[in-house]
Amino acid sequence: MFDKLLRKKTTAVPSTLQERLTIAKEKPMPTHVAIIMDGNGRWAKQRKLPRIAGHHEGMKTVRRTTLFANELGIRVLTLYAFSTENWKRPKREIDFLMKLPGEFLSTYLPELVENNVKVEMIGSAELLPIHTKEAIQKAMEATAHNDGMILNFAMNYGSRFEIAEAVKKLASQLSENTIHLDDLTEETVSGAMMTSHLPDPDLLIRTSGEVRLSNFMLWQLAYAELAFTDVLWPDFNEASMLGVIEDYQKRSRRFGSLEGDEIK
Ligand code: FPP
Questions:
Q1: For 143-185, how does the pLDDT look when each residue is reduced to its tens digit (9 = 90+)?
Q2: How far apart are CA 193 and CA 162, in angstroms?
Q3: 81 lines ligand 1 (CB under 6 A)
Q4: What are the tens digits of pLDDT across the range 57-82?
Q5: Burial (0-12, 13-18, 19+ Cβ within 10 Å), 175
Q6: Cβ(40) to ligand 1 under 6 A?
Q7: Which of 100, 152, 155, 101 is CA-nearest to residue 126?
Q8: Is 37 in the pocket of ligand 1 (CB under 6 A)?
Q9: C-alpha span between 133 and 79 (Å, rounded)
Q10: Is 136 a pocket residue for ligand 1 (Cβ < 6 Å)?
Q11: Which atom of ligand 1 is nearest to the CA of 54?
């Protein structure tokens, strides 16, 4: 009898990625996943390679993660590709990072179109080199009519800058009397952000073992579940992503309220 039960239990444990994927897809999926892709430099160092080799490998992980997130049914994937603080890095590294969107999109744009992925960007485009801007612009135009997952690159993005810009925008509307003090609500502030058309992230993932937000989506992450993994970004694969999603699905999101049986 016990043996029978145990055997039954053992066979019910999903073993392959495909089985785990099927189960995960039946449970609530985060609508918006944001990722701080960290650990490219350390990945390269472990292999005695230059840092840029880590970024190049990281670009391949961007492709893999995009396709897998799409497969999972995630609606928005925001990737922190270059922060306003990253300009402090050596010029050679910055130049390389600025070439990656071009290489990524020229290689994978047809695949993104085929998968109905829509490319978007948050951050300030002004300071980006022309070739970077053009590559992103071209991808945004080519995918503008796609209505599948949004692949949102945060390029030259900084959350405090974004918040300051939103405050400026609202202050100028106030001074022009197009809005009034009472109109300044959480919704109007959200509406002044670069993400005004997107839902807030449900899940933030940071790779490489670092446990901080690094000026990323500070307003939007107010109620996000946070997941930190030791895996370096170039090593982050389908199994790593699925593990994070499975963990997310075990959590109870209360948004500050209580569970059903706690309200007594
Ligand atoms: C942080 O790792 C990573 C970055 C600053 C760049 C992230 C960029 C990519 C993953 C590729 C982007 C691809 C496209 C298509 C835009 P780090 O260099 O700080 O790593 P470390 O902490 O190990 O040094």
A1: 999 999 999 999 999 999 999 999 999 999 999 999 999 999 9
A2: 7
A3: yes
A4: 999 999 999 999 999 999 999 999 99
A5: exposed
A6: yes
A7: 155
A8: yes
A9: 17
A10: no
A11: 18
Q: How far apart are CA 262 and CA 254, in angstroms?
A: 11
pLDDT band at 254 (very low <50, low <70, confident <90, very high): confident
Give yes or no for a contact between 208 and 230, defined as CB atoms under 8 angstroms apart: yes
Going by CA atoms, what residue is nearest to atom 18 of ligand 1? 41
Phi-psi region of 67 (alpha: psi -120 to 50; beta: other; left: phi over 0): alpha
- From the CB of 206, is ligand 1 less than 6 Å away? no
Expressed in angstroms and rounded, the spacing between residue 58 Cα and the centre of ligand 1 is 7
Q: Quick one: DSSP state of residue 15?
A: -
The alpha carbon of 99 and the centre of ligand 1 are apart by a number of angstroms equal to 13
Tokens of 4: 């029978």
Residue 156 and residue 125 in contact, taking contact as beta carbons nearer than 8 Å: yes
Sign of the Cα torsion 133, 139, 141, 143 reads negative
Question: What are the φ/ψ torsions at residue 244 (nearest 5 degrees)?
Answer: -65, -40
| pLDDT of amino acid 257 | 73
> Ligand 1 pocket: which of 52, 96, 212, 233 to mutate (most atoms <8 Å of CB)?
233
Residue 235 Cα, ligand 1 centroid: separation in angstroms? 12
